[in-house]
Amino acid sequence: SFLYYYQTEKDRITRERMGRVDSAGKPLLGGPFELKDGDGVLHKSEEYLGKYLLVYFGFTNCPDICPAELEKMAAMVENLDAMPEVGAEKLQPIFITIDPKRDTPELMKEYTAEFSSRILGLSGDIPTLKAIAKSYRVYYSIPDDVEDGEDYLVDHSIIMYLMGPDGNYMAHFGQNTTAEQATAECKQLILQGQ
Q: Distance between CA 131 and CA 120 in Å, rounded?
């Protein structure tokens, strides 16, 4: 009964924050962004037009979910890069923090390098990241009563997005999707788009 209450309450809060969204066809997910990498370089979404993006939102202090999803992303990227019909030039994997208070651009660079040198870790200020997360319909909740230096966890959505070369949503992969399944779907969608 506690799990039911928790899920019901989480769904209610998500609906309040996102508002009602009625749609038909592909969901309107994603949007423009301007975020910094670990070297302080500003990356704009427009620079990725013409490429497929794998996008995941999380945080570096995540004990298990984010590392597992980034391992999945790294495996997908390695597999897709090795395919002559896909290759590294067509795909950019991106990890965007939802915890900018702790996840500095430098920390994001170090963290993503542990999984794959191809994953670009991006960070920004709180209002910018909130707007980007909202455009991707990413739920997250940082505790309000945390003091500086205090450790905390961030509750968040566990979804990786495949965005098309036009910047529009193509597919998403949840926690239960394996790297092999997601790789196969990405390959199929990328080949259909050629």
A: 19
116-148 burial: b if 16+ Cβ within 10 Å, else e: bebbbbbbbeeeebbebbeebbbbbebeeeeee
Per-residue pLDDT tens over the stretch 158-184? 899 999 999 999 999 999 999 999 999
Cα separations (Å) of 92 from 67, 80, 95, 113, 158? 18, 11, 10, 14, 19
Task: Assess contact for 116 and 73: CB atoms under 8 A.
Answer: yes
* Phi, psi (degrees; rounded to nearest 5) at 163: -110, 140
Q: What is the pTM of this model?
A: 0.83
The answer to whether the beta carbons of residues 16 and 159 sit under 8 Å apart is: no
19: left (phi over 0), alpha (psi -120 to 50) or beta: left
